[in-house]
Every structure is written in structure tokens, then in C-alpha cells.
Design goal:
The chain has 359 residues and is α/β, with parallel strands linked by helices. The relative contact order is 0.13. It is globular and about 65 Å long. The longest helix has 24 residues. It has a seven-stranded parallel sheet with strand order 3-2-1-4-5-6-7, sandwiched between helices. The chain has a six-stranded parallel sheet with strand order 10-9-8-11-12-13, sandwiched between helices. α4 links the parallel β5 and β6. Helices cover 41% and strands 17% of the residues. It has two domains: 175 residues, Glycogen Phosphorylase B (Rossmann fold, 3-Layer(aba) Sandwich), CATH 3.40.50.2000; 156 residues, Glycogen Phosphorylase B (Rossmann fold). α6 crosses α11.
Length: 359
């Protein structure tokens, strides 16, 4: 069975797409990935999957040179997508959202090829809202997403958000040893997602600098490539154990070691927190149609996470929260236990089953 998988350029789109692609390939299907060229052309492991790249476009409603160029790249990408459809002849096309997946999904609909999209966030993006009218099936990560889609309920299926197969909980001592950390210290993980977050990097560093009990603390910080150099220099001046990464492929070690995580609230991050049951302080990214705020509210309502809005985030506020959690470990345990209220879904296998059923 030939399955074409197309996705946008963010890690939140690509990582679940890669998880599905691997599962389908391992079940004997012929799978081809369609990825945007920007930033990912050299990041997919050689030999992992048959992969094609199309031009990515960034469009807005402004009439300027940059947007005109974006239209040109969008149309070029649409032409490339048409050629891929004709050459590969898929039986099913799977889309993971974003503007860049729309041409491939449109051609599939036009040629009456079976189609399914996956929505990672609670609130569906514009691309998936439009595509939901055309496709045969809509897979969602959160049951609440049904309220944001104006399509037949029979078309919607709850699968959860696929995660990489190697994201499995490890023994905490093994995870701490990976970072050369000690047991008994308060381990904080800071991460801004696949691209990093300058805002989180800056405020979290200031909060750690102001923290009064540094001897009881150890930090894992995944910062992205842009801030790595200056953060490394600043951390060297702090009297606390730390491990700094621009990107950490083996993130399961960080998740297994952490007592508390400070992070954004992207869909993949929320799914990973749910899997590893990590107490969290969530700072939703304030733009992109406030998707992350809706994601964060899911964990906040369970009491497994605290939410601080980006405009309210200060180093002092974070430092006070760190101290409160360190002095009251029962709060962290209650937050960890609260994850039990969420259903446990084998998202990758459920989504793969829906794809195979369509074919």
C-alpha cells in the first residue's frame, strides 16, 4: 500500500508525521514523506524514509515584496506536489497541517484519492479547518477539538498525538547518570520546543540566577541554536550543576530525570508531558492564534500544570515557584498523579490503523 505523508515545517507537525511514517513502514507499507525544504532538508536521517522536498511559503494578507515572493513559492510548491502525486500514485494521502500541506491534500482530493488529516492542537489551525471539509477523515489529539470543527462527527476520530517510538520512560537514576547529576537534588528541565525560545531562555536564566538555594538545584536546558553560545557563558558563572543543549535527540533522558519542566505548550510537548507525567509550568506562546493557550488549559484544568501567560512571566515569579515546589514536594506528586485523568492512547498505532482502513 502506497501512503504519502505531507507536513508543515514546525517540529509539532513533523515529529508526529515521522512517528506515523515509521509505524507504517514497519508494517510493510510503502511510505513517502513530503517535507518543506526550509530547515529540514539535512535533518532527516539518511535512509530513514523515501523523502521528497517542496518549496515552503510564508504568506500573510499584506501586499509587499516578501508576500509576493511567498505566493511564487507557494505556487512552485503546488506544482512540485502535483508531480509527486502523479509519480508516486498513493492510495492514501495523510496531512499534518500548515499552509504547505494544502496543495498536496488538494491534488489528492481532486484525483479522488483517500485522504486523512491529523490535528495536533486543541484548536484547529486554518489549513486543517479548510481541509476538514474535503478529506475523508479527521484524526484529533484532544476530544475537545470536536467543538472547533464544523464537520460531521462521524468523520472525526480521536487518536491522540503520535510520538517517537524511542520516547520511553527510563529509570530515574539512569537518566540522572546520563547528565552526571546527583540523586536528591531538585532537577529542572527548561525547553522552548524544537526551535528554542529566546523569551524562556532569558527569563529562566535570570530566575535561576536569583534562586537562593542553588546547592539544591540542577538544571537541564535545551535552548535552541540561536542562544546556545551566550547561555553557555552565563551558565558558567552560576554556581549550580547544569547541562546545556542546543538540541537533544535523546530527550527521553531529560524527561525521565526532571522533577519539573518549564516550557511552551505546543501540541507535541503536551503529548510528551502526558506520556512522562511531568509536573509543568507552561508559558504558552502568545501568537499563532493562541493555539498553545488552549493546549495549556487542558493540563491546567487537570491540575497537572501551572500556566503563566507570556506577558506575566518574570524571573522573580519563576524563582518563587521553584522554591515553593522544592519546599513542598507533595505538590509535585499531586501534579504527577493528576495525569491519570487523561485517557492513555496508543496514538501512533491508532492513526496507522485509520490510514490502513482508508486504503
Amino acid at each position: 500500500m502506497r501512503v504519502l505523508i505531507v507536513t508543515g515545517s514546525s517540529g509539532g507537525h513533523i515529529f508526529p508525521a515521522l512517528a506515523l511514517a515509521e509505524a507504517l513502514k514497519n508494517s510493510g507499507q510503502r511510505v513517502q514523506l513530503v517535507l518543506p525544504e526550509d530547515g529540514w532538508k539535512n535533518r532527516i536521517p539518511a535512509g530513514f524514509m523515501q523523502t521528497r522536498y517542496i518549496h515552503a511559503a510564508k504568506l500573510s494578507f499584506r501586499l509587499n515584496k516578501k508576500n509576493i515572493l511567498g505566493v511564487y513559492f507557494f505556487l512552485w510548491g503546488a506544482w512540485q506536489a502535483l508531480r509527486i502525486i502523479i509519480e508516486f500514485k498513493p492510495l492514501v494521502v495523510v496531512g499534518f497541517g500548515s499552509l504547505n500541506s494544502m496543495p498536496t491534500m488538494f491534488w489528492a482530493w481532486l484525483f479522488r484519492i483517500k485522504t486523512i488529516i491529523h490535528e495536533q492542537n486543541v484548536v484547529s489551525g486554518r489549513a486543517n479547518r479548510l481541509l476538514s471539509k474535503l478529506v475523508d477523515r479527521v484524526a484529533i489529539s484532544f476530544s475537545q477539538t470536536r467543538n472547533y470543527l464544523n464537520v460531521s462527527r462521524e468523520k472525526i476520530v480521536l487518536t491522540g498525538n503520535p510520538l517517537r517510538r524511542d520516547l520511553a520512560r527510563l529509570d530515574k537514576k539512569e537518566a540522572l547518570d546520563f547528565f552526571k547529576f546527583n540523586e536528591g537534588k531538585f532537577t529542572i528541565l527548561v525547553t522552548g520546543g524544537s526551535q528554542g525560545s529566546h523569551r524562556l531562555n532569558t527569563v529562566c536564566l535570570e530566575a535561576l540566577a536569583a534562586y537562593p538555594k542553588k546547592n539544591d538545584l540542577q538544571v537541564i536546558h535545551i535552548c535552541g541554536s540561536r542562544d546556545f553560545t551566550w547561555l553557555k557563558a552565563r551558565y558558567a558563572s552560576l554556581a549550580l550543576p547544569y547541562q546545556l543543549f542546543d538540541f537533544l535527540a535523546a530527550v527521553q533522558y531529560a524527561y525521565s530525570a526532571a522533577d519539573l519542566i518549564i516550557c511552551r505548550a505546543g501540541a507535541t510537548t503536551i503529548a510528551e508531558l502526558q506520556k512522562f507525567k511531568i509536573p509543568a509550568i507552561l508559558i504558552p506562546y502568545p501568537f499563532a492564534y493562541a493555539h498553545q493557550s488552549a493546549n495549556a488549559r487542558i493540563l491546567e484544568s487537570l491540575k497537572s500544570a501551572l500556566v503563566i501567560q507570556d506577558e506575566e512571566l518574570t524571573a522573580e515569579k519563576l524563582s518563587v515557584k521553584f522554591l515553593d515546589f522544592w519546599e513542598n514536594p507533595g505538590k509535585l506528586e499531586s501534579m504527577r498523579q493528576a495525569y491519570a485523568q487523561l485517557p492513555v492512547l496508543n496514538a501512533t498505532q491508532l492513526l496507522a490503523k485509520e490510514v490502513l482502513t482508508l486504503g
